[in-house]
Specification:
Elements (H helix, E strand, L loop, with lengths): L3 H6 L5 E5 L2 H9 L3 E5 L5 H14 L6 E4 L14 H4 L5 H13 L16 H6 L1 H13 L4 E4 L6 H9 L4 E5 L2 H10 L3 E5 L5 E2 L5 H11 L8 E4 L5 H9 L4 E4 L13 H9 L5 E4 L7 E4 L2 H7 L11 H18 L3 H6 L17 H21 L3
Parallel strand pairs: 1-2, 1-9, 2-3, 3-4, 4-5, 5-6, 6-8, 8-9
Antiparallel strand pairs: 7-11, 10-11
């Protein structure tokens, strides 16, 4: 396609898929789009293994890597060691997560103790940890880096430029987009509040044209529209409003290759667009996820206020991992608690496909939408 995104990334169809699953990344890239692996929760050793696997299964097609280097988080200024982060989690939060599990007949008594589980999130957000992850990607020929929650630090932009790898930045406000363009990013991922994971409060329908107009007279920085986009028609609509392609995640969570548990996939396929919640309870920053008994508990009056990033991740993820394992073997309480990041567009997803089939469906729906628009000019 004649898209700036295709030109920059060397792909056939300007659909970029964010996923924590290496299988989805490989299949999307092989289908003509680009898969981007979410790596913030990985250790360097695991990332090396994941990229080795992708290299062996992607048929030489380009793929990307998503890191999370926020401008602000607990421990950044002090360069705090991961082993120190756990000491900053109040006992109230440890007890609350254990109580939620207990209320659903799941043993979580050990979660009342101090642990350093998921502290590698904090390490990967520091310059030293993120640089190590970047270098692993460079060694594997990664063709795109993406960063969220603020302007990528100058050292990151410089390092990527030295290695000839474009940088994409997630934005949820016009002001953020302007700062990203001024800083030198190569691609803007313009994400509306409908999206899963970290999101702002402005809708995709408003945000994409607002930002396209705001940067029109600046550098030629293409936009990937994101936030609730689960069909080719939506992708075509976003491109009509000024985007050069789409960044999607939720639509791939129900694919046969996705990392989501079968229970969560079933819940997502049955969900409507209103069955998501935007909450700080998972990471400490607002992120959209599937509504469940777990999210309801954290939104109740009994819940403690969520902690800043990455401390809230260290509270939530160990419990959610235990919930997923119990749900997979049929535990009824765990099934009610099970949740995952997902956008409002999940209400448009009604069947389980492979990741490759999903890309193909996007292409077909995009063409139909393009032809429909052309028919109005006849």
């Amino acid at each position: 396609m004649n898209s700036k995104i295709c030109e920059i990334l060397g792909i056939e169809f300007p659909l970029v898929a964010f996923s924590h699953c290496k299988d989805v990344v490989a299949q999307v890239s092989k289908a003509g789009g680009m898969g981007v692996l979410g790596a913030v929760g990985m250790t360097p050793e695991i990332l090396e293994q994941e990229l080795n696997w992708i290299d062996d299964h992607v048929d030489g097609k380009p793929y990307g890597l998503d890191l999370l280097v926020p401008n602000k988080f607990v421990g950044k200024e002090d360069n705090m060691a991961p082993s120190e982060l756990g000491k900053h989690i109040p006992q109230e939060h440890r007890d609350f997560r254990a109580d939620v599990l207990k209320d659903h007949d799941i043993d979580g008594e050990d979660l009342r103790q101090q642990t350093d589980d998921y502290s590698n999130w904090g390490e990967n957000m520091q310059e030293s940890g993120a640089t190590r992850m970047l270098q692993i990607g460079f060694d594997h020929g990664v063709r795109l880096y993406a960063n969220a929650l603020g302007v990528p630090p100058k050292w990151m932009l410089d390092l990527c430029k030295e290695n000839n790898v474009p940088v994409a930045a997630l934005v949820g406000k016009k002001e953020h987009a302007i700062r990203q363009v001024d800083a030198g990013v190569d691609i803007l991922v313009v994400s509306g509040t409908e999206g899963g994971g970290h999101c702002g409060d402005v809708s995709t329908m408003v945000l994409v044209p607002e930002i396209a107009r705001a940067i029109k007279n600046s550098r030629d920085v293409p936009i990937l529209a994101a936030g609730g986009i689960c069909t080719g028609e939506q992708m075509a609509g976003a491109m009509a409003m000024g985007a050069s392609g789409a960044w999607c995640a939720s639509v791939f969570l129900t694919t046969s290759e996705a990392e989501t548990s079968e229970i969560v996939k079933e819940k997502m396929l049955a969900a409507s667009s209103s069955q998501t919640v935007r909450s700080r309870s998972r990471t400490g920053k607002h992120s959209r996820q599937l509504q469940s008994s777990w999210t309801d508990a954290w939104e109740s009056d009994k819940a403690p206020d969520p902690l800043p990033m990455p401390l809230q991740t260290m509270v939530s993820e160990p419990a959610l991992s235990r919930i997923d394992k119990a749900a997979d073997v049929g535990h009824e309480g765990a099934k009610k608690l099970a949740t995952y990041w997902v956008g409002q567009g999940i209400g448009l997803v009604e069947e389980k496909l492979t990741a490759g089939q999903t890309v193909q469906k996007f292409k077909e729906e995009f063409i139909e939408a393009y032809e429909r628009l052309n028919s109005f000019m006849e």
